[in-house]
Structures are given as structure tokens and as C-alpha cells.
Amino acid sequence: MAHDLEGPRLPSARGPLSGAVLDHLLGTGPLPASEAVAGADPYGDDLQLALYLCYELHYRGFAGVPADREWDPDLLRARAALEHRFLAALRADTPLHDSVEDAVGELLVEPADGTGVSHHLCEKGELWQLREYAAHRSLYHLKEADPHAWVLPRLTGRAKAAMAAVEFDEFGGGRADRVHARLFADLMTDLGLDPAYGRYLDAGCAQALAVVNMMSLFGLHRELRGALVGHFAAVEITSSPASRRLAEAMRRAGAGPAAAFFYDEHVEADAVHEQVVRHEVIGGLLADEPHLAPDVVFGIDATEHLEGRLAERLLDAWHAGTSSLRTPLDAPVATEVPHIS
Fold this sequence. Notes:
The protein is mainly alpha-helical.
């Protein structure tokens, strides 16, 4: 897995909001006015990139950006305005279930005639589509489980112990070569992609950015801990069957053993995690803080809402025979991935 201790390079601006944030990160300009944020498309490229830039300072930062920008008061105020616009839209646009039981119950039912991205890739996906999918998902999977770790100090008892146990698995169970972010980097190498952290930020669409931004938003705000748990449940409950389809897609397209292994690992692990998250993380949280049930529902349903938007973007492009990325991928580069046992 490629390591860049200085962080990835800064991306190109996608509009005035992200342009202003980029200028401020380099110390060359003012931040966007609150009026500009209030009038921006909450799901658009410009706002989503601006918010992603702010959040990334709490992960690895960017090459050439001073580390103390993470706690720049002006930047934090600008981030708060971006967050408010995004969160208000999420709350307004997300259809909500009546209860946690209803929301979780729907996640547990696999549709007989599924039409999502994993179904498409399993049944008829082409290698170029798998490469695009990996490039989009790299914005999260190269820091897999990191956004969810923010919630650990906000939990207690059963919920905390169970969440920590699942996170321990995500971080490789003590083995650096089994850290899921490392396994995804190996997948990218098998697909002839550059596994460097943040390499495909310029290429990723707004819908992909929004999914990752939602995780950071929920994780960084203590008041949204219930939403983070709901989001985490939505991911873990739906992961195993989707991963089975994606592993089959990788094999069918001849992507290589490391590409299939990443999803094989999630088929088994997330089948167990689903039970732990349902009964111990959600169950423990609501036993301690029953008033957070509506937030858990919101986290589940907001995840499904944003994942649906991303799926629509990808499938619309692929059905039209066009790229779902903002910038084209380089031709695959053949590289051998070490075998993991």
C-alpha cells in the first residue's frame, strides 16, 4: 500500500466555494461568504468538494498545507456553514422509517430482482466499470473504518465494546497486512489503479464525495452519534450480500485474486458484524440512550438515500456507455500483489 506521509496533493477547484477553501488552505485568499454557501447546491460538486477538503484535514491533510490548518477558527466556521447546508438538505430529503425495527428490517431483506450497482457489476459489469467503481470507492476504502472510530469516545458499555470489536476487525485484527484499507489498496493494484491515498479525488463524482462526507459529519459531531451508529448498521447489514456479488464480478472480469479477496473478506466478516451491530451496538446504545432512536433511523435512511444517488449516477453513465468519473482513468498498469494468507 502506498504511503504518503505528507498527504495527497490538493485537487482542482469545482466552483467558487471549493476554490475559496483551496486558496485559504494555501494562505492566499478569503473563505466563502455564508450567503454563497446558503445558495449553493447541497449535493453539488462545489459544496461537496469544499466540505471534503475541510474534513480531510482531520485525517491525513494535504501536501503543502500546514498541519495547524486543521484547527483554523475561520476554516472551522466555514466548515460549519457547509455542514449546515448539507445536513439540512439531508434531513429534508431523506424519507424516514417509523422505527429502528422497521429501518433495520428492510435492510435485512434482499430484493429478488435487485437492480443496484453490485447486481449490475455481478451480472454484466465490464472491467472498465469495476475500475471506475474502485476509483470512486477509494475515497472511503483507503481510510476504511477511520470515520467510524470518531464515535468510540461517545459510546459506553455494550455499544462501545461491540463497536470497538468490529473496528478491530476492520483494522486487521492486529495484522497490518489485513487492514481493510490495505486490502483495498491491493484490490486497486490488481485493477491497474494507483493505490496512493487520495489519488482519485479529482476523478470522484459529487455523489461519491457526499457518501464520505456524511460519515465524517456524523463521526465528528457528538450530537450525531446515533446517526453514525445508524449509518454503520446500514453499511454492515448490507455489506455481506453485496460483497458476494462484487467478488463474483471481480472473478468474472478477470480482475485478479487480490481484487476478489477484498470482497471475500467482507462476505464472511460482515455477516458476523451484522449480528453484532444489530444486537450490541444499536441495542446497547438504545438501552443507554433510548431518545437517540430517531437519530439511528436517520443515519440508516440517509445512508440509503445517498447510496441511491451514487448508484443512479453510476448506472445512468454505464447504461449510456459513458464514464461515471469526472476525469478519465489511466490505462491499467500490470503489477503483482503479494499473496495474503
